[in-house]
Amino acid sequence: MSDLTKSKIRQGVLDVALMLLVVVIALAIALVFIAIYGVSPGRAISAFLQGAFSGNFNLGSTLSKMVPLTLVALGWIVAFRGGRIQVGFPGQIITGGIFSSIVALKISLPIWLHLPLAVLAGMLGGGLCAWVAAWLWAKRGVNEILSTLLINLVMAQILDWWVQSPFHDPSTPLPQTRALPTSSLYPVLLTNTDLHWDIILLPVAVIVIAFVLARTVWGFKVRVCGANALVARHSGISPTRIGTQAMFWSGALAGLAGASLVLAGTTPAMGEVFEGGVGFNGIAVALLARNSPWGVIPAALLFAALAQGGQVMQATVNISSELVGIIQGLMIMLVLAATTMLYLTQRRRRKGPGERELVPPPELRGAELGATP
Amino acid sequence: MVTEIRGGSESHNEASGVPALRLEDITKAFPGVRANDHITLEVGAGEILGLLGENGAGKSTLMNIVYGLQEPDSGSIFVRGEEVSIKTPHQAVAHGIGMVHQHFMLVPDMTVAENVALAPSLTPGLSRLSEVERELRELSKRFGLQVDPHATVGELPLGARQRVEIIKLLYRGAEILILDEPTAALTPEEWRELSLFLRSMADEGRSIIFITHKLDELFGLVDRCTVLRDGAVVGTVDIENTSKAALAKMMVGREVALRTERPIVEPGAPMLEVRDLTIEDGGRTLVSNVSFTVRAGEIFGVAGVGGNGQNELVDALVGLRPLTSGSLRIGGQDRSDLDPKKFTQAGGAVIPEDRHDEGLALDLTLLENLILKEVDSPAYSRRGLLNLRGAGDHAKTLLREYDIRAPGPSVAARTLSGGNQQKVILARELSRNPKLVIAFQPTRGLDIGAMEFVYRKLNEAKLAGAAVLLISFELDEILSLSDRFAVMAGGRFLATLSAEEADPERVGLLMGGEEQP
Amino acid sequence: MISFAAIGVGPFDTNLLSQALILATPILLAGIGELISERAGVINVGLEGMMLSGAFFAYLVDWKAHSAAIGLLGGIGGGLIFAVIMGLLAIEAGADQIVAGVAITLAAIGLTGFLFEQIFQNLQQITVHTVHSWSIPVLTKIPSFGPALFNHDPLVFLAFILVPIAWFLLFKTRWGLAIRAAGELPSAVDSAGISVRRVRWMGVLCAGGLAGLAGADLSIVQVGIFHEGMSAGLGYLALVAVIFGRWKPVGVLAAALVLGGTNALQLRVGEQPYIQSAFWGAIALIALIWLGFQARHRNAPSMTLTALLVVAGVVLLIVQPHISLTQPLWVGFPYAVALLVLAGSRTAARMPSALSVPYRRGQS
Which pTM does this prediction carry? Predict the structure, then answer.
């Protein structure tokens, strides 16, 4: 048994080292881009670090950016563990935000009721948005990757319309909603910062998701479906039902993120671009965390720091914050390459000749495109 | 005793002396395993060489090296006396080496001609299918292999696909043919045709390496036989001077009982009653009007060649596929609207055909795999939460009882060997004291030791009063375990025989679809 | 821009036809490339990013070189950069193709945005040289639809000529045999002595190059400018076109026309103060054609849905309600149609069996 524990620890250390390597390489490439544009890397790094961590305001912004990233990453993990690759987080965040804005603006209640109701509405919205894709997959055999991508595009337009027509604030030409009442907003945790009370969602959500996946029967069934859908069917577990549920909850987490973006934003209104790329970056966070709920915390911190530091860097040393997008894309690519290589070397070390030739291992297979189980 | 003739040339049909293919000192190590350990063997022109060994003995690795799919750590390959380097299948083809893989390398959606035309070419030119078709017709006339170049491969029976594989090699000009366990999907009749054909190929001067782990197939076909065990050559024998028992001993390293004892029990109440079961899918009838009864305390076998409706029958019996018509009773209760959950609740256990695809979730731990089907029971979960302690104790007991070699219950199922993985499935299914056991190809890909274990456990289940339905493509397995058995061909049961009245000749003809031999 | 006479009923005139062809072009170009890639077993969700990269680099090169023709090459190059990354990840490393595609799209959005801001931030919006239209001599003279069909920029013609070319390559050449086999059973390709990696690389590069060209079509052919995120989901529509086209060149053509037509219709109807009756008529008609198509495949449940759509279209045609939708909702319309199209067609069975499965030579 101690051998087993040791090898698991060694495995964990290796994983962490590999991810650190990925981060270092991605940042190094980013520095090359910075150097090309004539900014000294030293200046850029110090501007970045100050922007991300220095002072209450910057630190508060970084922490506050972690919350939606963490929630979306957990959403990806729930669906992915159930064998579903849904990439509809942007659309689900938007739907969540819209649902929250309805409750916030159309109902007036005391805060202890109003805020929770607005947050729950956001979860429901995100869940429903994911459920549409889940239904199309389960009943019509539509590949959930494509359907969620298309739903993202549709939802982006619906949001456009939403903040221009029915919920538009007539006092401003900007595409945004009227100011949301304070009773529906997360209270500020640290004055003069963007840090709101929704930060408590961060540890709570991580613990809940980690516990659900590891210790509950439902989580177990989700993992069985993700590991082998046919075995699940043999065991009386329906991969379509569990997959649909996993997608719903995945979307609900994204909706929760959307509620945070709207109800704990810099301004108390929902604008046209409130999603701000969180949907896809959350996927990157989950991948960097290697789909472990606990790993999401450091990975989200890194991404939040990148986003916050990048903004400050743009303002101070005039480097476009779009650079952050390059870094994020690069990190996913490197994580993919690194984990695949790691997997292969381990497999070779452990097993030697495989039993069946020419059949790739299931975890390297993509999603079963379009196929209804 | 075995006469060992290493590299002997006495039995070569041609006396020229230069072997068509010679492997010298081939070594290939995977971390932890030495798959090929200084292997030397040769095959002459016009000779058929048998390559015998258990699963995992290194046969396939060796042949993959010859075919350029893997590189050896050391050793040399000589083709017609010249040393060659084979790093890709392309080079192997260029040296006139062709291989029929265990799994057919044919694209089901393409026609026979298209499959044959799939070949490396320097010019990105037209596929010129009509020329390929013409040549194919000539080849099939010349060798008496019936193949329709226009047919879509996916619609051909397995025997015909095998002919396509072989004719593909001939089209590519192969002089040295390697056949990796080619008989798994053949009826006895198709096998007879294949062996005649191979002989005529050899008589034309081609060399053939015939890989198998079935002793029967060697006699009457090969000239010599090289036996591998644990990656090394045990010996090469002239087939005329040896016996089945001697080869078996070389292969396994000890005396083996080739037949297991069949315990006789008085059968009890009917546990599985199937009446007029029919399964249709997309307009095709896959199983038609099958009726049988399996009683407590008996093993009922279903013999037949793969792809004759067995998969669909098993899927229907465990509730994965709806019946088109007919009825199904388990333990005396009507279960025509079965689903896997009801099957398990009715006391059903299943050992599926493919342990990787259907039996185990390879990335989950042994513990998780062992409680898969009972996770909702109060022993392993309470109010939606897993009871990890209860499950852990259960898993540890099973690891001990079923002799599963693993560091502990928390390792991933993927890390186990094939035999141990099968034991995990047996442990999960049989430890529930099932009333009905459906075992589909339960020894597929296992070595003899693990096979004996499976047989013992199935017999134990029978003695404990379970009804056992054994579906197998290996006739030997059916004959040595079943009390009664049916022969399945074309989706129908052609005859039901008792163990006493089974005559391999007659069963063989039935498997080929001959109804009244 | 379009100077010839428009003939037709309400919004349905020859201008619409011409516009539909123009809007179908990028979908068709990228779709044909993706078709080849998927036939070879690699699904390319990064198509969107490759298109965006093509649009930007075409614009950049056009601006620097003062030539739209060289700009087109720049666009192809822009697509190929990310195709190479896709190949390294999906073919060499054997990584999950879908996640790799998402990463590529993210990186392309980042890279084009970054470079655009860094290079052009202090400059006014620059319009670069665009590609001139060609008119096919005699055919343009055909009354009514002649100009709408035969007076276009060369990429429109190229896209449509690519359809028979792709068909010929895939189904009549050895190259096509290898591509198709690599998507169905790569081990058969390997065993035949053909390198699966090489075959799949060709597929991925085809997809990247053509997606880049499609991007160039957006930036330097259609408008002459670039703006961030200008591919706006067209790459995803190309993916839909491949699925809806059942992995066949002619099918991709039909799907691209439907999606391009929807887009043209959306632009046109969005301009009107309220939805005109002809629109409802068109919906009823399209649904009716679709119904006939489904009847051939005996797809009962979706036939009911389509039949309801026909009835709804006819009812609305008769009632003529004054409904108006705002611009954003019309922009979302083609994507919603694509979603319906996916839901209404069961095509999973036609999918290449080894699509998205990395190939690794067995060790046994």
Answer: 0.86
